[in-house]
Amino acid sequence: MMIARKITGDARTRNFSMASASSVTSVNTSVSCKNQHATAATEEPTGVPWVPDRASDECMGCQVAFSTFRRKHHCRNCGALVCSSCSRGRARLNGLEQKSRVCDICQRIDLPEGLWQEWKWSIEILCSGSRMSGWWSQVLRRNPAVHMPFEEIEARAEYFQELKSQPEIALQVFEHAVKMTQDFQQIEIDVERTFGPNSLEMQNSSRSLTYGPLIVYALRKGKTWKDIVTWKHALRRVLICYVMFQPTIGYCQGMDYIAAILLYGSNWECHHAFRLLVALMEKYDLSSVCAPGLPLLNLKFYQLDELVHYHLPELHHHLSLHGIHPNTYASGWVLTLFASFKTLHPGLVLSFFDGFFAKGWKSWFRVALAILATAQQRLLQTHTPTALIELLNHELPTLFPENDEKCREFFLLANHFKVTNAALVYFEDNFDRNSTCESTVVETYYSNRGEARAS
Ligand SMILES: [Zn+2]
Ligand SMILES: [Zn+2]
């Protein structure tokens, strides 16, 4: 049990961009050549890819046209193309000594007046015609209803403002203040990472960065650079608001990818994405997966392992023989709902979210099984634990090309796996009764990797 807990603790702080690193390469490179905006200049110190100069003739802040007198500048935090009056602020970024230019939105981060009121848990305004309305109609079918304690949130929003003016006092007065502060800091770091290219690519091309899969996908779907800048700012707001809303759960790495997908599906409407995020947490039980200590992560691994055993027995035998269990490869699948693009490209992830909002975790297990089934031949031909781990963690995207026909085939395959709630509940009961199972799995994993075990 000790070991299991240790692993879950580590998993919470794991950096998914590292884990998902090389796996998105194929997604990026295959589309970047088609997209002329895909290679970007960057300011060396902060490493944030800039919106290309030619992407906009007007300031992304005040919408006034650039001219000889109104020059183009880049926010070093989000890469936006802004005029000098919209980027007067300077901030220390990435722990750099000198301060860098930031746009007004990155400088402020505050929440507009009345936003909390606007975010009431009601259904009236949700007919945007976006993907979100479909997701939302599924949310509404689920029980139980979610209640938002608004007065409390107002108080925490006050804390957030207080924190900037008088940090010492704010830390003493507000409950959860320390954890919230840590979460805010982590969000600042992670927002850019969510959109960024993977670390391997950055190593390979020191000067010209390629954008991450989300940006490449959005540009290819005809979205503008202005949309992308809006997206980054919106992501930050949604995550900060969630921390204020539910500080005991707070921010868990992985949530950034989920919120980014929700924002895309909501046409970057913060309050829509925020509601969806809250719905995923409360109605789809994501909160028990990403709460501190990741309480349900091992259960998901256990359930997946049992399902692989049942549906793909040959593969299960092969993987078990080499000590490969879901905890070796599926933590990103659980914590980001496949949205880290470690395995599936953004198009597939959006379709997965359609299924997840409709069917919940059953559809997650089906997709996980479909991924393994697609990779089955290659996995069976691989005979060392290291090569298997490498394949599962880095090489899967090559098996899922961005192609509508393949996408349909993939979901047909996924739906062919029978996963019932009854089976999941049965495994859950089993998991509770034999809590030693998990540590056996974890121990096998560690002994195979030759890593030191915590006692
Ligand atoms: Zn401006
Ligand atoms: Zn900015």
Automatic annotation (TrEMBL):
The keyword Metal-binding applies. Residues 53-106 form the FYVE-type domain. The keyword Nucleotidyltransferase does not apply. Coiled coil: none annotated. Residues 164-360 form the Rab-GAP TBC domain. Keywords: Metal-binding, Zinc, Zinc-finger. SMART domains: FYVE, TBC. One of its GO terms (molecular function) is zinc ion binding. It comes from the Eukaryota. PROSITE patterns: PROKAR_LIPOPROTEIN (PS51257), TBC_RABGAP (PS50086), ZF_FYVE (PS50178). It holds the Pfam family FYVE. Transmembrane segments: none annotated. This is Rab-GAP TBC domain-containing protein.
